[in-house]
Design a protein that fits this description.
The chain is globular and about 65 Å long. The chain has a domain of about 100 residues. With about 375 residues, it is α+β, with helices and mostly antiparallel strands. It has 18 helices and 14 strands. About 40% of the residues lie in helices and about 20% in strands. Strands 10-11-12-13-14 form a five-stranded mixed sheet, with helices on one face. Strand 8 and strand 9 form a beta hairpin. About 45% of the residues are buried. This is Winged helix DNA-binding domain-containing protein. Pfam families: AlkZ-like.
Length: about 375
């Protein structure tokens, strides 16, 4: 796979046009049959660290969807909140949980000696915790405190409760990857956890782990291609060698392309669309919220075609924070934030350098549309930097 000659040479403009289309950002936001679960599926999940960001990621892609629709889908159990890629919180379509969790069973990062030492557990203790979690959650919805106590009691290690209740849920994440735990409805200000097999009506034995991982690779390459093995590794949360093997397993389904000297892979079925993709003339402005999948999985992150390299740290910030960005013709060209007060929505837009008047106008139109979706009137403030 790695030694094959590129099937085509394409430009970064074609790549950006292709990705905009795959991310439902190419044309005017429209109905196009989009649903919350459909958008989440197409983007390989919605990031759920910040609930409002997940809502906005859907809102900017369809004028038929808006704030509140994501929360409603979670309440209806059409979307499931769980730890997924890189151990981060995601919202995944309930119907696809067997796929994502089957692939998650191949994760091995939590089995390394260094990870176990950091968590202060042995392999045997982790195995016992993983065996106990689906049992204590069977038919139950428990807070983190309740789950920690129940698991530690089940394994006969009461002192383990302190480790289970501390940190970012690291000792629960391996069970989430496997499909033995996901988030429930919550209880007041406390999150709750449930057994996904009680929570979601799905055929949980419908796909084997290897086949599931192959499908995950297909979906990622379809949405974010062209990608190198390092791109998939960063997004999925594995070593580049593992990512390379997973991509190679698809054989001729993936084909290499040359993007101005950068080598990446696309699905062979998408090659014609990529080679004919074209950006529209003039400004093509989009406001993307924090943690938007287009930005999170942008690849490669350090290429000037995607954003000015000297601005990278303003987008990909410490502790994994991903900024809300201004996107023009598929390229990150600034950042933005918003505040809502009664019927007014103040949107502060900051470009990377001077922003041309007609580009400002295009971003202004997007800001006004977003303010309407949020139920207010836009107040737009520009600051160049």
């Amino acid at each position: 796979m790695t030694g094959a000659e590129p099937a085509a040479a394409v430009t970064w403009e074609q790549v950006l046009a292709f990705r905009l289309g795959r991310h439902l950002l190419a044309g005017e936001p429209g109905d196009a049959g989009h649903t919350v679960t459909g958008v989440a599926s197409r983007l390989c999940g919605l990031h759920a660290q910040i609930a409002s960001c997940a809502e906005l990621a859907v809102t900017v892609r369809s004028d038929k969807l808006g704030p509140g629709d994501v929360a409603a889908a979670v309440t209806d159990r059409a979307l499931v909140k769980t730890w997924a890629m890189r151990g981060t919180l995601h919202l995944l379509p309930a119907a696809e949980m067997p796929l994502w969790t089957a692939a998650g069973r191949l994760r091995r990062g939590h089995l390394t000696p260094s990870w176990l030492r950091y968590q202060g557990v042995t392999r045997d203790e982790l195995d016992a915790i993983q065996a106990a979690i689906p049992e204590v959650l069977s038919g139950a919805e428990l807070t983190r405190e309740e789950l920690a106590v129940a698991v530690s009691d089940r394994i006969g290690r009461p002192e383990m409760a302190e480790r289970l209740r501390s940190g970012w849920g690291d000792l629960f994440k391996p069970s989430a990857y496997r499909g033995d735990l996901c988030f429930g409805s919550g209880r007041g200000r406390n999150v709750t956890f449930v057994n996904p097999r009680d929570w979601v009506d799905a055929d949980w034995d419908s796909i084997a782990p290897d086949a599931a991982l192959a499908e995950v690779v297909r979906r990622f390459v379809a949405a974010y291609g062209p990608v190198a093995r390092e791109d998939f590794a960063r997004w999925w949360g594995c070593q580049p060698a593992e990512a390379g093997r997973a991509m190679a397993a698809l054989g001729d389904e993936l084909t290499p392309v040359d993007v101005a000297g950068h080598r990446g892979f696309v699905r062979a079925a998408d090659l014609a669309e990529l080679t004919t993709a074209a950006l529209p003339c003039g400004p093509h402005a989009r406001l993307l919220p924090g943690f938007d999948p287009y930005v999170v999985a942008a690849c490669p992150r350090n290429h000037e075609a995607l954003l000015p390299p000297e601005r990278k740290e303003e987008i990909y910030r410490p502790q994994g924070w991903i900024s809300a960005v201004l996107l023009d013709r598929g390229r990150i060209c600034g950042v933005w934030r918003h505040e809502q007060s009664r019927a007014a929505v103040t949107l502060s837009l900051q470009g990377f350098g001077t922003v041309a008047a007609r580009t400002r106008k295009a971003f202004g139109a997007r800001a006004e549309s977003l303010a309407r979706a949020l139920g207010g009137t836009a107040r737009i403030v520009w600051a160049d930097a």
